[in-house]
Every structure is written in structure tokens, then in C-alpha cells.
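Example record used in the benchmark description.
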Amino acid sequence: MQKAAGPAALERDAAAAFAECVLGGALSQQVEALIARSGLVRHHPEEALALLERARAAAPRHPAPLIALYRFHFYGHRLAQARRVGMDALAIARAALGPDFGDTPPGDPAARGDAAVRFYLFVLKGLAYLNLRLGDLPEARLMLGELRRLDPQDRVGGALLAHALARHEAGDAEDEDAATAARMDDGWAAPPQSTGPAAAACGWQEAGR
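Model output (C-alpha cells):
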């Protein structure tokens, strides 16, 4: 008789399955078609949104519909809606990674190469950016603090947002167009030459790349 898997093994299996989903696996053709159709009608927001909501309902635990919804709202400048999608994505990723995730930092190899971990970190970064844009600075600060704890080597680029927040609070805001040229070489250690919030890549859809 085969021995039942223990909780730790089940958590590993769930994280591995979620990582496969982040990379685009385990998505039905029906859901893929809905997401693709939404892109074709993106100039008709109500129709596109209805298709994305159908995709999400058909695959409620898969990150792909959430990523598509996030993009839809973010690039449509509906930042509050994008933030709500981000919170849902964070909860799904957190559940997949297991209750013990985050008790200690996942480690640099995971931050660099584990798709599920990277997805979680990118969602945190995206939410920090959205909270900064929406003026919820305490929540942005909280999420950046957690991101720094989990990703001390700054593999997902959260330090740039932290420096943007610090400069904003110091009243030293920069023009965002100029800030898009910024590069982050020193991680959390030192501010870059330009730290406007637009310099940070806030699209957590990059996590599985």
C-alpha cells in the first residue's frame, strides 16, 4: 500500500504545480482562447473585460487569467482595479507556496530561478508600485519592506521603488519620463541616479520568464 504524502510533500507539489502554471502550463484551450479573444477586442473594454472574467471563472487558481486582467486594468490606467487583481494574485501565490513560505527568506537561488517564488515577489513589487501611484504610501512602504526581507539581493528590482518612495517622501520628485532611463546597479544599498516610480518595471507578468 502506497504511503500517503505528508504535508510538506503536498506543499512542494502545490508549489511545483503553481510554478508550472506561472510558466504557462496546465491552462485549458478554452481559457487560452478567451484570453486571446480579449486581446483582439481590447479597444472595446466592456467586451474584453467580460471575456477575461469568464477566463478567470474557468481557471480561478491559475495565474494566467489574473495576469491578463492585471494588464488590462494597468494599461487602461485603472490602477485601483489592477491593485485588487494583484491582491488576489498574491493570495493565490501565497496559498500555493504553503503556510511556511516567508518564515525565512527563500534564498537567492529561488529568487533567481523558482517561477512560483519569483511570481510572488513580482506581485509584491507590482502592488508596491500601485500603492505608490495611488498615494497609499504606508501600504507601499509595508510591501517594500517585505520585499526587501524576502529578496535581499534585489533580484526583482524592488530597491528602485524603495528609493522612489524615499525621494517622494523627502519632496524630491523627478520627472517620470527622465526617470524611465534609470538603472539599478547597487540593489538596496544605495539610490540610483534617477528614482522616479516609472523607472521600475511593475509588470509582474515577467515572473515566469
